Amino acid sequence: MSGRRSICLYTPSTDPSGMGAHMVDLLAEYAATADVALMMRPTTGGRRLLDRAAELGARTVELPSPRHPHFAGVVTGFLRRHPADVFHCHVGTGSEDWDGVRLARGAGCPAVLQTQHLPYLVAHPRKRRAYHHAIEQVDRLIAVSEGLRRTYHRIGVPPERFTTVPNGVAPLRGRIGRDAARAALGLERRQPVVMTLGRLTHMKGQWHLVDTVPGLLARHPDLAVVLVGDGPLRQALEKRAAALGVAGAVRFPGHRSDARQLLDAADVFVLPSRHEGMPLVALEAMEAGLPVVGTRVIGTEEVVVDGVTGALVRPGDPAALGAALERLLADPCLRRRQGAAGRCRYLAGFTRERMAAETAAVYEAALRGARR
């Protein structure tokens, strides 16, 4: 970036999860050369991200609910005390509140940007009209995948409004290795392990993964299927595993701060999502050298190369998901080959450094436009 910029990252989300990790990754890349700040709700997940941002040297702002009477004062007051060259808002579906963007405009921020992390999923015509009106306040829109960008083009957003900047992740520091990761999860050294990471929600599709387990156990009786994460579906998933008679094979270690290190325990990574923008966990698995079985949905299909770095199957199809997992569980050479190909693909196109550099280029373009 030109000179020392002041950059403020903002999200109204109460559950930022991967989106929040993306924001903190940008802060980590910019902290040495820019003045950076993070505005976020101090929910459980948000608190962890705010703490991490503070460790990186960022100013942090705990946001109240947008409905709180002090919300506008918190945002505007901070931006007046610490003027931002770039105000960068991060949202999911395009239906979140637009108060932050409006307040940043009112505070005189020269460049206001927004990154969309999920496809446009809102069908209501009134909300679509509101979205078109709201983006008039934004200088640049960023999509985290090409497929995601196309969903906004289909509702009439001109393609030139968007720049696609695919997600990226940093290499893991302090990898613990297979034996230590398995010991941390109570797994045997030689048993086959399928793993997924993420919030336990309908969108992430773990229900379909649990449904594959009876068939996989018939061929791999010592199989462990590990669902790292927590969320509203946990109890239902545990009951489903019990009803299928596979509760002993399906592990629920809950939220783990060392989740990424635990990837070393896996033989195969699986992501059975119904929707994605561009899944960070798939990139993290590829960085760890794991083959990835994912669903053929927006974002994932731009990360996983079917038959090269893993497999892509129809979403909501446990039979196809189970067959893809079985092919990899049955063939150690295939696992190693596809895992190595995935790591090469990560290094070539999905690093955090590349993502941050491309995002910074969008910032500079927006600032040049603001000066005209």
Furnish the topology, listing elements before pairings.
Layout (H helix, E strand, L loop, with lengths): L5 E5 L6 H14 L4 E6 L3 H12 L3 E4 L8 H11 L4 E6 L7 H8 L4 E6 L8 H10 L5 E4 L2 H9 L7 E3 L13 H8 L7 E5 L8 H14 L4 E5 L5 H10 L6 E5 L13 E4 L8 H8 L4 E4 L4 H4 L6 E4 L4 H12 L2 H18 L2 H20 L1
Parallel strand pairs: 1-2, 1-4, 2-3, 4-5, 5-6, 6-7, 8-9, 8-11, 9-10, 11-12, 12-13
Helix pairs in contact: 1-2, 1-14, 3-4, 8-12, 10-13
What count of structural domains?
Answer: 2
Mean pLDDT comes to 95
Strand content: 15-25%
* CATH level 1 name of the largest domain: Alpha Beta
Number of strands: 13
Largest sheet: 7 strands, parallel
How far the N terminus sits from the C terminus, by CA atoms, comes to 18 Å
- The SS-based structural class is alpha/beta
In which order are the strands of the major sheet placed?
3-2-1-4-5-6-7
As a percent range, the share of helical residues equals: 40-55%
CATH architecture of the largest domain: 3-Layer(aba) Sandwich
Helices and strands, in order, run as EHEHEHEHEHEHEHEHEHEEHEHEHHH
- Shape summary: elongated
What is the CATH homologous superfamily assignment of the largest domain?
A: Glycogen Phosphorylase B
Instruction: Work out the oligomeric state of the chains in this entry.
Output: single chain
Uncertain parts: none
- The CATH topology annotation of the largest domain reads as Rossmann fold
Radius of gyration: 21 Å
Contiguous helical run count = 14
Protein name: Glycosyltransferase involved in cell wall bisynthesis
Domain Glycosyl transferase family: 178-343
GO molecular function, one term: glycosyltransferase activity
Domain Glycosyltransferase subfamily 4-like N-terminal: 17-168
